[in-house]
């Protein structure tokens, strides 16, 4: 079931930009395990997976800082972040998988069976190295002309720098662009760039979406093709 408070002008859309964690992939368990490995290394108690999941979305640095309780010792935070990143690089694909329907929907959107094939890209706050490696391992990379991470630019989402760069590289206008994501961060990024926003209720941060007022909600990746097809969005 798909709900839309507004109607995206689907015939005009030429660029789709996807978030990664909670949108294309379910990485919750590997991220939680890596955070708890970091906490154990520092002789701190483990956190519940649900708590860690609520910290995801603003990049690795903020994830680690929140898990540590926002300490003032920056050297301590940097040491913790290094351990987390080293551990996560080795364990990023232990349990991480593509959400059901993602590959099929990306194939349909790219091929443009309705004559509306679009360019597609990834913009995530996860560091670009593991992001690209995950996309390659899970057969996502061929669908995207660019995969940018949280360290690809001087700022992260919700700052629109990365999205604006993708819009420029694709040679399209913001009005022709949709940002697809599972959190208010993605919606705010789209708004700041003048693009449309499609919200994924199945992701890691659905509780943040309503207040962000996206242009469209979907309940699964299978809904992407309906939401972005020339037939419009169904309720």
Automatic annotation (TrEMBL):
Broad enzyme group: hydrolase
Catalytic activity: 2-phosphoglycolate + H2O = glycolate + phosphate
Enzyme Commission number, as recorded: 3.1.3.18
Single GO MF descriptor: phosphoglycolate phosphatase activity
InterPro entries assigned: HAD-like_hydrolase_sf (IPR050155), HAD-like_sf (IPR036412), HAD-SF_hydro_IA (IPR006439), HAD_2 (IPR041492), HAD_sf (IPR023214), PGP-like_dom2 (IPR023198)
Gene Ontology cellular-component annotations: cytosol
Pathway: Organic acid metabolism; glycolate biosynthesis; glycolate from 2-phosphoglycolate: step 1/1
Pfam families assigned: HAD_2 (PF13419)
GO biological process: DNA repair
Family that this chain belongs to: Belongs to the HAD-like hydrolase superfamily. CbbY/CbbZ/Gph/YieH family.
Protein name: phosphoglycolate phosphatase
Lineage of source species: Bacteria, Pseudomonadati, Acidobacteriota, Terriglobia, Terriglobales
